[in-house]
Every structure is written in structure tokens, then in C-alpha cells.
Amino acid sequence: SGLDDALDEFGLGDDVRAEPARGSRDPSHYWVAVGPYLRFTSPSWGASWRLVNRALADGAVRVSREELLEVLGTAIEARVREGLPFELDADEGIAADLESRVAELKRLLSERTYTGPIDVVAPALFPPCMTNLIEKAERDVTLTAPESFALMAFLVGIGMTPDEVVAFCADTSLDAEGIRYQTEYLRDDRGTQYPPPTCETLANYGICHNEDDHMRVAPDPLSYYETRVEEADEVVDWRDEHGIGDGDGDDTDEDEPSGGESRSERVSGERASGEEPDPTAN
């Protein structure tokens, strides 16, 4: 059952046993080993929770189903607390500790603007700030939340799917599950909901250092990258080089050029003809 699975997940499967119920009814009471009971309950919950006031037999405490769910809730809270990047005192809410982090992300998201899909991945032409973040992650350094957001938004903004971003970041400190969660949120039918912040904002976070005075070229990473792609003599798409994005999955078919033409050939052809890439083209 779902309850049994939850108990197993938190290492309580062997410490909790159901009290046999009459007929085919679900158990209404359970017996919890004394150790876990004391670990996940508190006398401050009320006199009824004190061990002296509980039925005790064979090293286990009798609880109702509702009380067991409260015990399980405490175990879940303890698991969450262990995963937080800061210390949290007992009975202290996490809102205050997360406030500054949430404010940072809200500021990044507030700069939402729409940009048409570029749909070419040429790492040699990436903006310096994005190259620096990739190299940092390749050194197995954990990126901060603003750094991770900026990089994921950029990669999605240039037309990469979640699967492609996972493959691109395979040898970095970024984990696949986190990449998928963030990139799937950032994408929409047009390509990206939240392009990376402007160079000015990235500079405030210590991400952009305005190398070669590139802010004169463009005010944001996507515009800078698009300019470099347009000016390049030859553009080879990283996905074409590595055979990425040409599988049978739904996530890649929509991005694959038709007629057997590679992305690199398509971009070169559009630039040679002087035509702007068609955002609606598949």
C-alpha cells in the first residue's frame, strides 16, 4: 500500500506493524518501535504523546492511524531538513532562510522577454559568461542558483531540448534530474519562457565580466550569441557532430530539420541567402 511504501522509504518498515483488524477493514491502529517513536514525536505535542500515557508492549507503542501519519510527517520533515543548504533550528520555518534565494530568482525571472529560437549549438561561439559557467561545472564545481538558471535559460534559448542539455552537460557537476526539471520548466511552445538575464544583471551576480567589452555588441547572452553566429564564416552544430537529437523520441523530432539537411547546413544556407531564420520552421 501507499502507507507501507512511505514507511519503507523512511526506514520505518521494520519498526511499524499493523494491529490486526476485524474482517477486511484496514487497520485502525499500529505499533511503533519505541526508538523511532521517541525520535519522531515530542512531548510538546501534548500529554497524550508522552510515553507514560501510551500503551506499550514488546518494545512498541500503540498509535492510531492518524497518529502514525503525524509520526511519518515528522520523518519527512527531518529528511527535508537534512537536505537544506543551511542550518534550521527546531520549530523554525524555512521561509526567512529562503527569502533571499527566492528574491534572487524572482529578480532573474522578472526580466522575461521573448526571443525567437536560434536553434544552433556552437559552443565556440558562446558568450564568455556561458563558457565560464560550463568550464566551472566541468571542474565539478557546484553552480549557484543564479548561475544554473542563467546557463539553463541560455541553452534552452538557443534551441536545445532537455535531452540535449543533459547530453551536453553529461561531464559536469550538473545532475540530469535537476537539468530536466529546470529546462522543462523553462521551455514552452516557442522555445523559452525565460531567456537568460541581461549582461548587466549577470554582472551584478558576478557571472558576467564584460570580457572584450562585449556589452557593446549586445545587451544579453542570446543577442550576443546570435550576432556571433551570423558573423561566423562556418557554423558546425554540436548536435550534428555528436549525433544528438536525431533519434525517434518526441523531444527531438520537432527540432530535426526536414529533408535530411543538418542544422549546420540549414544555418549556413540561411545566412548565405540573407534570410532570417523562420521561427515557425521545423
Highlighted features:
282 residues, mainly alpha, 2 domains, four-stranded antiparallel β-sheet, 13 helices, disordered C terminus
Topology:
Layout: H1 2-9, E1 16-18, E2 29-33, H2 34-40, E3 56-57, E4 60-64, H3 65-83, H4 95-109, H5 128-138, H6 145-157, H7 162-168, H8 176-186, H9 199-204, H10 221-231, H11 238-242, H12 250-253, H13 263-273
Antiparallel strand pairs: 1-2, 2-4, 3-4
Can you walk me through this structure?
With 282 residues, this protein is mainly alpha-helical. The protein has 2 domains: 2-83, no CATH class; 106-273, no CATH class. Helices cover 45% and strands 5% of the residues. Strands 1-2-4-3 form a 4-stranded antiparallel beta sheet. A hairpin with a 2-residue loop joins strand 3 and strand 4 (60-64). Helix 4 (95-109) runs parallel beside helix 6 (145-157) and helix 6 (145-157) crosses helix 8. It starts with a helix and ends in a 9-residue tail after the last helix. Residues 247-259 and 275-282 have low confidence and may be disordered. It holds the Pfam family DNA_primase_lrg. InterPro entries: DNA_primase_C, DNA_primase_lsu_PriL. One of its GO terms (molecular function) is metal ion binding. Residues 235-282 are annotated as: Disordered. It comes from Halorubrum tibetense.
Concise description?
The chain has about 280 residues and is mainly alpha-helical. The chain has 13 helices and four strands. It is elongated and about 80 Å long.
- Structural class comes to mainly alpha
Indicate the overall shape: elongated
Helix content: 40-55%
Number of strands: 4
The largest pleated sheet is described as:
4 strands, antiparallel
Pattern of helices and strands? HEEHEEHHHHHHHHHHH
